[in-house]
Amino acid sequence: MTVLTKICGLSEPESLRAAVTGGARYVGFVFYPPSPRAVAPALAADLARLVPTGIRSVGLFVDPDDEFLEHVVGQVPLDLIQLHGKETPRRVAEIKARYGMPVMKAVKIGGPEDLAAALEAAETADRLLFDAKPPAKVAALPGGNGIAFDWTLLAGRRWPKPWMLSGGLTPENVAEAVRVTGATEIDVSSGVEDRPGHKDPALVRAFLDAAARL
Ligand SMILES: O=C(O)c1ccccc1N[C@@H]1O[C@H](COP(=O)(O)O)[C@@H](O)[C@H]1O
């Protein structure tokens, strides 16, 4: 079984190289200033130019306004926009139309009641990304918290758009996560870091190796 992997929150050439040479099919850059993984657009542009053809560069945004999107999209060669905030289906449609780029919408899962949002998001998004609902504490990020949700909620489910699994994945648990959910695409950030916001190239390789063994 081929499982395609996204390594998110890259901000250094070394970890980007580990992702690219290790077989990642997507690399992600975080354009959300409160995140420890936030990267300046100019640096992201330099990194994205190192990404070979065939690997998709993903820009992660949280409730971005048009000015910020223009600032980033105008200088970083992106293939896919990931929206990880409270964007409505209408806003997703607007962003797709304005930038002519596919959009992946994050759907945050805390329990079975959150699954309906995936169907709603799929009305306009090109792809879905399932992540854990962030903890209800003031300082929590809207994603990238290294928290897994109950994977059995996705077991046996079908979705109208291609989807990716994220939330607390690690080299150790990724096989089980894929087995339970049936995911064919996966996304990791915190699980390949040695400290918040800093990717460890060895962990990036370990994650990609674990995914390649599936
Ligand atoms: O990574 C971040 O800092 C981030 C900030 C704001 C929204 C989303 C973010 N990351 C995304 O969250 C999921 C899960 O990440 P993790 O593996 O649990 O750390 C993933 O899709 C990241 O792209």
TrEMBL record:
Pathway given in the UniProt record: Amino-acid biosynthesis; L-tryptophan biosynthesis; L-tryptophan from chorismate: step 3/5
Record-level GO BP terms: L-tryptophan biosynthetic process
Enzyme Commission number(s) from the entry: 5.3.1.24
GO function terms (MF aspect): phosphoribosylanthranilate isomerase activity
Pfam families: PRAI
InterPro entries documented for this protein: Aldolase_TIM (IPR013785), PRAI_dom (IPR001240), RibuloseP-bd_barrel (IPR011060), TrpF_fam (IPR044643)
Annotated CDD domains: PRAI (cd00405)
Keyword annotations of the record: Amino-acid biosynthesis, Aromatic amino acid biosynthesis, Isomerase, Tryptophan biosynthesis
Domain N-(5'phosphoribosyl) anthranilate isomerase (PRAI), residue spans: 6-209
Catalytic activity: N-(5-phospho-beta-D-ribosyl)anthranilate = 1-(2-carboxyphenylamino)-1-deoxy-D-ribulose 5-phosphate
Family stated for the protein in its record: Belongs to the TrpF family.
NCBIfam families in the cross-refs: PRK01222.1-1
Protein name: N-(5'-phosphoribosyl)anthranilate isomerase
